[in-house]
């Protein structure tokens, strides 16, 4: 093999070996993914086949921060009966979409009841909370952008006999506790 042919073959081999690394670095930098990064999540399913109980609902992870370079977390609340304390996210917007049932929201000083197909935004820094109020449990999707520490928050609190949702716990995840649930 001539030296030039050898060098071309060696360069091609090195490039092929580096392709998976380059693709994973591009993904980590928030660049478009590939077919390998696409993970359909079925109705009523968790991205990882898990179920997490918050006491007032069961949550399912739909999209997690490591799939979006930290840009997005999407969770599904099933069997929502009640809700979290009033709180504020200094660094995230939180968007709520009611799929079934009736949910009372407080965003700032305003309270509004939403029904299936309706949504509302909890802007960063604005205190907010929600509570299912209908005769039947509610069903919602919630998104956080950027995701911040919210995936870990839900993993840590959605366990049997989870920690008390108080100011110290919220502060650990960069969330400000404002007051009791609605």
Care to give the gist of this entry?
It contains three helices and eleven strands. The protein is α+β, with helices and mostly antiparallel strands and 182 residues long.
Query: How helix-rich are the residues, as a percent range?
Result: 10-25%
Main sheet characteristics: 6 strands, antiparallel
Number of DSSP helical runs: 3
CATH class of the largest domain: Mainly Beta
- What is the CATH homology-level superfamily of the largest domain? Jelly Rolls
**What gross morphology would you assign?**
globular
Number of self-contained structural domains: 2
Give the CA-CA distance, first to last residue.
77 Å
State the order of secondary-structure elements, H for helix, E for strand: HEEEEEEEEEEHHE
Average predicted confidence as pLDDT: 85
Number of strands: 11
As a percent range, the share of strand residues is 25-35%
Low-confidence stretches: 5-30
**Order of strands across the widest beta sheet?**
1-2-3-10-5-8
């Amino acid at each position: 093999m001539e030296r030039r042919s050898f060098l071309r073959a060696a360069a091609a081999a090195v490039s092929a070996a580096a392709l998976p690394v380059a693709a994973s670095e591009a993904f980590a930098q928030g660049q478009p993914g590939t077919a390998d990064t696409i993970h359909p999540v079925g109705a009523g399913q968790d991205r990882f086949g898990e179920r997490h109980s918050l006491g007032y609902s069961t949550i399912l992870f739909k999209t997690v921060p490591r799939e979006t370079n930290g840009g997005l977390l999407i969770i599904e609340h099933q069997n929502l009966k009640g809700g979290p304390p009033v709180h504020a996210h200094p660094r995230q917007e939180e968007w709520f979409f009611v799929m079934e049932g009736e949910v009372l929201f407080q965003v700032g000083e305003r309270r509004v009841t939403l029904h299936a197909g309706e949504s509302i935004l909890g802007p960063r820094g604005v205190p907010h909370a929600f509570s299912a109020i209908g005769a039947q449990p509610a069903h919602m999707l919630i998104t956080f952008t950027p995701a911040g520490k919210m995936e870990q928050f839900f993993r840590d609190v959605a366990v049997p006999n989870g920690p008390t949702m108080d100011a110290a716990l919220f502060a650990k995840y960069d969330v400000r506790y404002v007051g009791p649930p609605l």
